[in-house]
Automatic annotation (TrEMBL):
GO CC annotations, alphabetized: endoplasmic reticulum membrane
Keyword set includes Membrane: yes
The entry's keywords: Membrane, Oxidoreductase, Transmembrane, Transmembrane helix
Transmembrane segments: 6-27, 39-72
Name recorded for this polypeptide: Hydroxysteroid 17-beta dehydrogenase 2
Encoding gene, per UniProt annotation: HSD17B2
Lineage: Eukaryota, Metazoa, Chordata, Craniata, Vertebrata
Gene Ontology molecular function: any one: testosterone dehydrogenase (NAD+) activity
Pfam families membership: adh_short
PROSITE patterns: ADH_SHORT
Length: 385
């Protein structure tokens, strides 16, 4: 009996080593961020198995885990590029700009949609990228420009089809208490971050269904984590998340895979320039009612420029985790439905979803970057909270 268990144990150990080696080889070829996390979890699971059970049963369970991981990673190998065509919105700057360059370097045929085809971002793409890349004038809130972009894409891809659409264009707005955000800013955020993405999706879906391609929506961690001062922005990204989830289910019968990317905070131009801040700030002040002016005070609003400056201070300068996840979403045989690139992105998304509300609110208010200013009325001694 002892010999049997010894031989069986060695067999399990050998199978575990072989499967583990194959998985690591597959992981080496897989540049996505998710795979590394899965392997780390598998390692912890294997250690727990060996510590919690006898050697025999521990190796049995770990071998089974390795087999399941092998099956899982078999779908994570990348498809050949073959100059597959990809449309990216919001390519003037930031993630969209970097992604257009990155996919062009990988050999994709890139259609870089920009807000200003004569701007510096568009000119840089023309100057630095290959002839496969085409710059398209594409304001995603302009239905005519969407139709024109569709015609140009159709003309160029012809029978090759369009493999992927990456809805990346987005705006932040002025971060401040939701009560103070004017309705025109709410509507503007929704027009760009949600309705624009929906209209682009609807326009290009026939091409994606034909190629059985990919729809990738760039959302935000703020779409799943309630972040103060981000009522307008977060609401639009939450809407985009749900749209992506529903479309994932509906388009599966056509062979189209839908992925949503929820990045953490990265240094991009989404916060805008000082001139834009002045415009948004003036818009807020112009729409304040007398009661709001009295309760909040003008200084409280002006001090929120600090929040915009802190965005870059606490943001990651390297956007490559986002680029790698988008590459995985459009290239893997079986992409993930959900990605969360960035430090602590998964932590905050899980913490917001599963922790008690009071606990989450306490820790989020005491996290770095939280503005401690109080409205003027709350600083009055006779104010009863």
């Amino acid at each position: 009996m002892g010999t049997f268990f010894s031989e069986t144990g060695w067999l399990c150990l050998t199978v575990t080593a072989v499967l583990g080696g194959i998985i690591l080889c597959k992981l080496k070829r897989n540049q996505g961020q998710e795979g590394r996390k899965v392997v780390c979890l598998a390692g912890l699971w294997g250690g727990a198995c060996l510590l919690s059970f006898s050697l025999f049963w521990g190796l049995i369970l770990f071998s089974l885990s390795c087999f399941l991981m092998y099956t899982y990673f078999s779908g994570q190998e990348f498809l050949p590029v073959d100059q597959k065509a990809v449309l990216i919105t919001g390519s003037d700057s930031g993630i969209g700009h970097a992604l257009s360059k990155y996919l062009d370097e990988l050999g994709f045929t890139v259609f870089a949609g920009v807000l200003d085809e004569k701007g510096s971002g568009a000119e840089e793409l023309r100057r630095t990228c290959s002839k496969r890349l085409s710059v398209l004038q594409l304001d995603i809130t302009n239905s005519q420009q969407i139709r024109d972009a569709h015609s140009k894409v159709m003309e160029k891809v012809q029978n090759r089809g369009l493999w992927a659409v990456v809805n990346n264009a987005g705006i932040l707005g002025f971060p401040i208490d939701g009560e103070l955000i004017p309705m025109n800013q709410y509507k503007r955020c929704m027009a760009v971050n949600f309705f624009g993405a929906v209209e682009v999706t609807k326009a290009f879906l026939p091409l994606l269904r034909k190629s059985k391609g990919r729809l990738v929506n760039i959302s935000s961690m703020s779409g799943g984590v309630p972040v103060e001062k981000m009522a307008a922005y977060s609401a639009t990204k939450a809407a985009l998340n749900m749209f992506s989830a529903v479309m994932r289910k509906e388009l599966s019968k056509w062979g189209v895979k839908v992925c949503v990317i929820q990045p953490g905070s990265f240094q991009t131009n989404i916060a805008g320039t000082s001139d834009l801040w002045n415009t948004l700030e003036k818009n807020i002040l112009d729409h304040l009612t007398p009661d709001l002016q009295e309760d909040y005070g003008q200084d409280y609003i002006i001090n929120h420029r600090t929040f915009l400056r802190l965005l870059n201070t606490y943001s990651e300068p390297d956007v490559s985790p986002v680029l790698l996840d988008v590459q995985h979403a459009i290239s893997a045989k079986s992409p993930f439905a959900f990605y969360a690139p960035g430090k602590k992105s998964y932590f905050w998304l899980c913490f917001a979803s599963f922790s008690p509300t009071g606990l989450f609110d306490y820790f989020s208010k005491n996290s770095p970057g939280f503005i401690k200013d109080r409205p003027r009325a709350l600083n009055k001694p006779n104010w009863k909270n």
